[in-house]
Write a structure and sequence with these properties.
The chain is of the alpha+beta class. It folds into 2 domains: 30-115 and 163-332 and 374-489, Outer membrane efflux proteins (OEP), CATH 1.20.1600; 126-162 and 333-366, Outer membrane efflux proteins (OEP). It is 59% helix and 10% strand. It is built from 9 helices and 4 strands, in the order H-H-H-E-E-H-H-H-H-E-E-H-H. The chain has a 4-stranded antiparallel β-sheet with strand order 1-2-3-4, with no helix packed on it. Helix 3 (91-111) runs antiparallel to helix 4. The two termini are 66 Å apart. The relative contact order is 0.15.
Length: 495
């Protein structure tokens, strides 16, 4: 026979079940909250286009710079080889890589707080209690407590902090953002070193061309001096012409020696960059012309994704924003669930038996009542740090736009100046040819030859300098554009 159900019993049972489940539901709900502000990337004024783009094309999705070897746009095999040596041997790059690996390890440490901590312990010792210990048991009689005894313990403990206010998760987010910033720092350091090497290499090749020019001038001036000495011996010209020819030759030799000294300094700088000893490192002279590359510059908005230093600055804003949540969580109690158990006995042989078993389980709640304003100051400091990193991010981004504009203008205006200087150099060389012919005919004095040759040398040297400076500006432009890097190279979950 079925027992009749008492009215209301089902409702009471349901209410009891709800009351038992309510605390768990509240804990789960609280564990999903976060006290960090909703993150927004700081706003930066961005123009729709760059001002000086007459020599440059807008980058399309298919014509970005090479991701890993942007310097190949210069089509120089020796530069390619040096860049590979830099990647393998540069000390600063190795230090930046080690720093990034540290950040990765710190991130793994922070993530470990998302999981319970399990620990074990084993202890065996001989103890003696003081006879005058407070609340000491009886020293005599049938219930006397021994003064000397053994204690053997084997146990385990599990602890887990319930992330009620998002403190742990915000700590992990902050650590993750710092790791991503370190990855961008590594890319930024690599780009800077690669650009420095390319810049030094272009300077070196420019000096090679100037040294060759000085050597040609020295050869020409030696011939002119010999001609002047011959004419002076024949009584055709005065000793003043000989002195002028000698002075001009000596000046050219001085310029040649100065260029060699400058080349040695740059060669030593390249040796350090590629991780070699300056005492043994040597680059043979090379006077081949390096063509100015056509660099796709894109639009200003793409710069925010292509510059690793901008990405690093943005990630540090995200990190600081997460730390506001960590600071705010300090106002609320922390809840830790703990369980421990094991065996304890005064006799080792029977340690692992049921009578020696002990256990404890339960939550621990900790809340600070008064801290003299410490938590309030922590929140204020976290907010100020977010404001600071936001301002730095805007500064880095604005400087990046300015660097692109600067180098675009440099390349554009140097290109115009280079065309005019080429005309000046050609005219000066023509003047040298005419003055030398007329000097041989006795129509002009050697002063006219000296002036024409000096002007021609200066014009040709200026032309080579402009060529070098324009190439150097192109390197700085590529660096300002972020090289071949993009935010897609950050670990997943940047945004």
């Amino acid at each position: 026979m079925t027992k009749p159900e008492i009215p209301g019993r089902r409702r009471v049972a349901r209410s009891a079940t709800f009351l038992r489940a309510a605390p768990l539901a509240i804990v789960i709900a609280l564990a999903g909250c976060s006290l960090a502000p909703v993150y927004k990337v700081p706003a930066v004024p961005v123009a729709t286009s760059y001002q000086d783009t007459s020599l440059w094309q807008t980058a399309q999705q298919s014509d970005q710079l090479p991701r890993d070897e942007w310097w190949q746009v210069y089509h120089d095999a020796q530069l390619d080889q040096l860049q590979q040596r830099l990647l393998a041997n540069n000390a600063d790059l190795a230090a930046a890589l080690a720093h990034y690996r540290q950040a990765q390890a710190f991130n793994l440490q922070a993530r470990s707080a998302l999981f319970p901590t399990v620990s074990t312990n084993a202890n065996g010792q001989r103890d003696r209690e003081s006879d005058t210990k407070p609340l000491r048991g009886s020293l005599t009689g049938p219930n006397a407590s021994p003064a000397d005894y053994n204690s053997f313990t084997v146990g385990a403990e599990v602890d887990y902090e319930v992330d009620l206010w998002g403190r742990v998760r915000n700590t992990v987010e902050a650590s993750k953002a710092e790791t991503q910033a370190s990855a961008a720092d590594l890319a930024s350091a690599q780009l800077s070193l690669q650009a420095q090497l390319a810049d030094n290499y272009i300077q070196l090749r420019g000096l090679d061309q100037q040294i060759a020019l000085f050597q040609q001038s020295i050869d020409a001036f030696q011939k002119a001096l010999k001609l002047t000495q011959t004419l002076h011996t024949g009584g055709i010209v005065s000793g003043l012409d000989v002195a002028r020819a000698q002075s001009q030759l000596s000046s050219a030799k001085s310029l040649w020696s100065q260029a060699l000294a400058q080349r040695a300094l740059i060669q030593d700088a390249i040796a350090v960059l590629v991780g070699d000893s300056a005492s043994t490192f040597k680059l043979a002279a090379q006077t081949d012309t390096i063509a100015l590359p056509q660099v796709p510059i894109g639009v200003p908005t793409t710069l925010l994704q292509r510059r690793p230093d901008i990405a690093a600055a943005e990630r540090r804003v995200a990190e600081a924003n997460a730390r506001i949540g960590i600071a705010r969580a300090a106002y609320f109690p922390s809840l830790t669930l703990s369980a421990q158990g094991g065996f304890q006995s005064a006799q080792y042989p029977s340690l692992l038996t049921a009578p020696n078993h002990f256990w404890a389980i339960g939550p621990s709640l900790f809340e600070t009542i008064f801290d003299g304003g410490k938590r309030k100051a922590g929140v204020r400091a976290a907010k100020a740090a977010t404001d600071e990193t936001g301002a730095r991010y805007r500064g880095v981004a604005l400087n990046a736009f300015a660097q692109v504009e600067d180098n675009l203008a440099q390349i554009d205006h140097i290109g115009v100046a280079r065309t005019d200087q080429k005309d000046a150099a050609d005219a000066a060389q023509h003047s040298v040819d005419l003055s030398m012919e007329r000097y041989k005919e006795g129509a002009v004095g050697y002063l006219d030859v000296v002036q024409a040759q000096t002007t021609a040398l200066d014009a040709q040297r200026s032309l080579l300098t402009l060529n070098t400076n324009q190439l150097r500006a192109s390197v700085q432009l590529i660096k300002a554009l972020g090289g071949g890097w993009s935010t897609a190279e950050l670990p997943a979950g940047k945004r």
